[in-house]
Amino acid sequence: MFFFSSPSTASRIEAFRAAEQQLLGYAKTRFGHRNQDPSRHEFELFDTPISKPEVIKKSSAKCQIHESSDTDEHSIHGVKVTNTQLGDGGEGGYPAPLVLLHGYANGSLYFYRNLMGLSQHFGRVYALDMMGWGLSSRPKFDLVTDEQKVAAAELFFVESLESWRKKHNLSKMTLAGHSMGGYMSVAYAERYPEHVECLILMSPVGVPVKRPEDDKRLKSLPFYLRGMVSTARYLFNSGITPGAFLRSLPLSRSKAMVDGYIENRLPAITCEDEREHLSEYLYQNSMMPSSGESCLSAVLEAGAFARIPLVNRIPNIKPGLEVHFIYGENDWMGYQGGLDTQRLCLKKPDDSPTVFVHGVRNASHLLMLDNYEELNAALIIAANGEHRLTRDTPRPIEFACNELVGYRSMHKSYRGAIGETHAAAFFRGGRFNIREQNEVDEEEKAEENLS
């Protein structure tokens, strides 16, 4: 039994649930494959009781949005899709159930466009609100130790995911994380590799090591962008999260900022109602009490570089594990991190995972919303399901470091991959206002045609 901590929080939870239901409705009716029968798919919103992560101070363990009589027990919220035509996952040639982890300040229903299509190949698909976000428990992000800040912050998420896995009795997971969810997926795979059948990282944060040219790139930006980046870094170093900044503004201003973000960053969402409900989902998620969002400065430095970069950690996860990086064509996360990780793993192939890098066309960092069909194909291919894709399904491009391309006859898995020169031409880098940039591109094309 849950009790709302305050009327304002209660109203935000109610608004969040309403937006969640709308997005779930789109998942059921708008974004399935044309050959799929919706009646063969069961959708379920759920709350799973989990043990309280031990890294939270006892005095801070109380959930700020709902609580039970037992403060040692929290909950993970999410959505489950079951394809009744397929096996239960991990049997009969089907992959282990797919578990999707969202990015920073997002939630499980950010995958609403993907759920039905992914169930073509996975008997069960779970999308979770990670600990401290969405409708999962939101204890204060007040951890036991400051001496090992990165490890403690990671355990906040890793131990809650492991407790959730145990409650659902999943011996293996196909674990797929987006952005910060990708970072935490790696942390989980390091600690519990025996439960990960395949690791899929969708535009993961924190992969590369910071290089001198990264600061030079900032100096090359237009003045107004340099100012925005400098302001963001100042807020970051001051411990002010994006959510805290929004909550400090008048309500009309904070809502307008979120609406503008959705409109400018996601031109692929052309339906006004859909855009409105996604904006409400993001807004209410950000306006509820702070919890998981406070991990940002614990694991990252300003500029989204990890304090302990993943490029040096992934090669030490269990040998033979397949790790798939997926980046959008206009992604602000650098694809080079994936290729560098692949290169490091290639140096000790018997002791490291096997790494693949995929590119999704017409997609930015939020590739699950920009081009859900091609992202779905990338996830299904990563889980050895390419044979389940129809001939007309758009497929991602596979890239490989030059060392692999030069010797790909020795590596059957990479025979379709193209090298780093092609990758540099394909990945065009992040665009702050994608809608505006698309309009500029169209104008330039029109002028070229006239000339």
Automatic annotation (TrEMBL):
In its UniProt record, a GO molecular function of this protein is: lysophosphatidic acid acyltransferase activity
**Domain AB hydrolase-1: residue ranges:** 97-288
Top-rank taxon of the source lineage equals: Eukaryota
Gene3D superfamilies, A to Z: alpha/beta hydrolase
Q: What is one process in the GO biological process aspect for this record?
A: phosphatidic acid biosynthetic process
| Family matches, as InterPro entries | AB_hydrolase_1, AB_hydrolase_fold
The similarity annotation says: Belongs to the peptidase S33 family. ABHD4/ABHD5 subfamily.
What's the protein here called? AB hydrolase-1 domain-containing protein
